[in-house]
Structures are given as structure tokens and as C-alpha cells.
Amino acid sequence: MKVVLSPMSFWFHDLCSCLHDCIATVLIYHKHDPALILGASWEFYYSPTNVQREEFYHPLPRPTLAESMLPFHPIRSAWHATDNAERAWADVKALVAEGQPVIVAVDNFYVPFRPAYGDVHAAHLIVVFGFDEATDEVYVLDSTPPTKCGPIPLRDFLVARSSDNPVSGERDFFFAGAPIANRWLQLDIGTPLPTLTREWLTEVIATNLRRFREPDASPGWAGIAGLTHYLESICERSLGFDAGDALQELYTVGWTAQGATALHADFLMLAGRRLGWDRLVEVGRHVDRLANEWTALRMFGAHGFTQPAVIAERLRRRTITFLSNYEQTLQLLEWAIAE
Amino acid sequence: MVQVQDAFVLIDLAKLFNNDGISYATNLRDGGFNVWNNTFPAEELPESHSIVEVAGIPFRFPPKEDGQLNNILCSGQRLDIPPDRYDWLYLLAAAERRSEDTVYLHYASGAVELEWLRISDFWPEAGSRFGEIEAFRCTQMHFPRHVQPRVQPGIWRQRIPVPRQEPLAWVHLPDNLAMHIFAVTAVKTTRGHFA
């Protein structure tokens, strides 16, 4: 049996992770605009007990990934994990045969087209969109350069899917350590999707602002208070015994926050242009600035974890100005929807 | 040494270089542009110390040889400029992920103004997010243990306006470890009508 879904599309965003890329590819396959879906929600959430060393780590302020990432759209999600590689592959294959591209986790160490192949262990997501039982091949799409859209040997695929993703080398920092466990992400895209109107957009922004100002009670750190608490805790830890861990974590946690911020900036500017809402386009650029500022914070983490004493004070100063800009941007959004 | 070509003043950055972001395939561990120690392939970039023109602006390209530093990793350095009236500062730059930050322009009079330095990601497929011109796009990336085809890093030509109509003296760069500057050329105010 051979199944190859088409057309498949790459989607890459310079500040986003493989999680965003893969979800966007699936949305495009189902003929939806990822920019208007992925970027609608903007909030901050951090759970100190649940940070994964993975590029696709995403905190969950609500029970599922879709409810957390895409709360304004009728999309459901479920992560699946098993020790049984054959069983996991059978489940993924069945969905593909039904016409659904499926997002799967791999260890890049075993993926022949990844730069890390045979070199560095790193958890990563790709999209499976076909298989050929006659040739024992799996059709995969990866939007992260060097891009790939085509078959790879099933043997390699299964090894990459069942890897323990060990920390074993000098360059395995950030995304090694968590077993791949044959994980895959099921997305169910319901209908109808909301129509872009000024009223809907205003409600979306108001909800986001409410989540920043008055976050729901939860075990994690949420909203602007949670972001402040998180960044101040990283600054404090960067002076202590686990400074290296804290700064490495900033790189990972910051990626999720940066990606969401960048996507929301794009969302505001795109929606604002489509609706002729100029003020919103301008405020979108302020949100974009925050996304760009996340880069500096994350790079202090990435480059500073081996020399925290050199970084700590600079990170603290950057954090203070960043939080001030964050507060100002939230105010601009409040004014924009009040006009 | 500062080099002057008509309206263009090619700023000497050698004393400020603090990062090696370029390697030859014969020594892939020479330097590290980003946290993964990737580097630009020297074979695909202009000759060391050569004057290279990018969209009408001449730049002095930095050294590429093993062990040579060739870019400023922005850490709050002071970049001295021969005092004169300029319209623009042009840069060859790349960022380890897109970033924007403030620079302080210090004028000879003592006046200070804030301007933006915006640099797009060096990573392929990222594109120019701030309207920069692509100065160089390589066909492959150097990893510490192999040469990777189809991962194509780029260097951008960006610019910073110099709005005050008086001599500029120096620039205070941001403390932003994402930003790398390979070359700077200041463009003088030359047209009498605007002088």
C-alpha cells in the first residue's frame, strides 16, 4: 500500500520552533491560514515543574496543547506516547491513510537529512504525510533548513522515533535528555472556524489582555505578574548554585514565549491591514519589538550559562527594560480596542 | 586605519573585533558565530581586507584566516567615528536570530540621540525582516564537525540614520549578544543643498 498526501507546504518562521512550523503545515494542508490561527492567542504561562528540554516544549495553562495554543479555534489535540514503536507507527500510518498528516517527534541524531545526523542528539518535530509499504519508506516534511519533503527509510524513522535522546556529547545542550518515546501529536480541526471581523478580533484581544492582567488560578506563573516573577527568578538564580541550569532554561522557555509573541505580532498586523484598522497594525509592531527583545534575553541565556557571573547583571538590566516595554505594549493594546 | 573614498569613510573595526564567525573547511572549529559554533564558509565570502561594494556602498571586509577575529559581537562597545557630518552609517551585519536594539549616537557637540539598530537572522529561510539588503548568501554552513549543504547563512547590509546636522563622534553599541557587525562605512553629508 502506498499513500502520499498532497499538496504539502513548507512553513517557516524565523522566531518560531518546529512545533509552530508543523502545526502550520497541517493547517495549510486543511486549507486554513496559519497566520490567523497560530497568532490569535498571546499570553504568558510557566510551570516550574514541567519544563522539557525540547525545542517543541510548550507550557500548558489549559489541559491540552490545542486548548493552550489555539484557544480561539475549534481545534483539539492529543499527545500520544508509547514504548511500542511498531504500534505507534501503525497508529500514525492509519491516520495518514485516512488523509491526515501527523506530527511526530524524532531524535535528529538518527534523521539522515538533519545536520545533527550522527553527531548531536536533539528532539525535533516533523510531519508524516505518506508511506510506501513496498519500499519501506516514510514520507516526511521538515520546514527547518535544510528542508525536506520526501521519503526516508522506515528503518531510520523508527530508530529516530524510539531514541532515548541521551545527553552524550559536548554540544547536546538545550534539547537532549528527554526520551522521544515514539510521541506523536494528533490534531483534529473542527468547524466552523471564526470569521475575521472587528468584533471577533476585539474579543480575542480583550481575552488575551484579561489573561495578562487577571490570569486564571493555576499552579503555574501566568500573566504579566507571572512573566515578571519568572524573569526575576532567572536573574536571581543566575547568581546562585544552579545558574547554568537557569540560563539554559531561559533559552528554551524563552523560545516558546518569543514564538508566541512574534506570531501574535504578525497576527495583529495582518488582521489590522485586512480590516483597515491602522492603530492595530501599529500596536502589532510594538508586539513585534517585544518578540525581537526576547532574542537578547535568550542569547544571554544561551551564551551565558557557562559564565553566569559575566551575564547576571546585564540580564537583570535587560529584564527591567523588557518588562517596562511589555507593560507599555499591553497598555497600547488596551487603548487600541477601546477606540 | 580609517580609509576615505569620496563620501565614504570605511571605519576600522579591528580593535573592536571580539568574535570569529568565519572558518575555512580545512578548520571547521575555527571560531563560532552562534551558540552551536556554526560559522560562515570563508571560501564563499570576499577576500580578507578587500574593499567590497554592496549595492553602491564600499566596505572593508574583515579577515577570515584561522584564528582571526572578524566581527563585533555587540556588548556595549564604543565605536569611534572620525568626527564629521554624516547622513548614514551603513553596516554589514547578521544576527543570531532577529533582533533590534537601541544605539546611542554621540555628536562632537556632546549631544546624544537614540536610534535603532535592526538586524535580521543569519539563518536561511529567515529572510530580511527589517528591509535590509542581502549582502552575501552562502550555499552552505560550517558546523564544528562537518560542512552542511543547503543551510545557507546570510549577511545583511543595514543602515542607521544620523539625523542631527552636526559632526558625529562615536556610537555606543547595544549590549546584545545576538548582534554581529562585520563592517561599518559612514556616508558623509556631501550635497550642498542639504548641507
Strand-and-helix sequence of chain A, N→C?
A: EHHEHEHEEEEHEHEHHHH
Which CATH architecture of the largest domain in chain A is right?
Alpha-Beta Complex
How much strand of chain B?
Answer: over 45%
What's the count of strands of chain A? 9
Mean pLDDT over the residues of chain A: 95
Q: How many helical elements of chain A?
A: 10
**Which oligomeric state applies?**
heterodimer
Shape of chain A: globular
What does this entry look like structurally?
The complex is a heterodimer of chains A (339) and B (195). Chain A is of the alpha+beta class. Chain A has helices at 18-29, 34-38, 65-69, 85-97, 154-161, 198-213, 223-237, 243-275, 278-304, 308-338, and strands at residues 2-4, 45-46, 75-80, 102-107, 123-132, 137-142, 148-153, 184-189, 221-222. In chain A, the strands form two sheets. In chain A, strands 1, 3, 4, 5, 6, 7 and 8 form a seven-stranded antiparallel beta sheet that branches. In chain A, α6 (198-213) packs across α10 and α8 runs antiparallel to α9 (278-304). Chain A is globular. In chain A, 50% of the residues are buried. In chain B, 0% of the residues lie in helices and 49% in strands. Chain B has no helices and 17 strands. In chain B, strands 1, 2, 7, 9, 12, 15 and 17 form a seven-stranded antiparallel beta sheet that branches. In chain B, strands 8-16-10-11 form a four-stranded antiparallel beta sheet, with no helix packed on it. In chain B, strands 3-4 form a two-stranded parallel sheet. In chain B, a hairpin with a 4-residue loop joins β13 and β14. Chain B is globular. The A-B interface holds A 12, 14-15, 115, 119, 143, 145-147, 171, 251, 289, 292-293, 295-296, 298-300, 302-304, 314, 317-318 and B 35-37, 95-101, 118, 120-121, 123-127, 129, 141, 143-146, 148-152, 174-178.
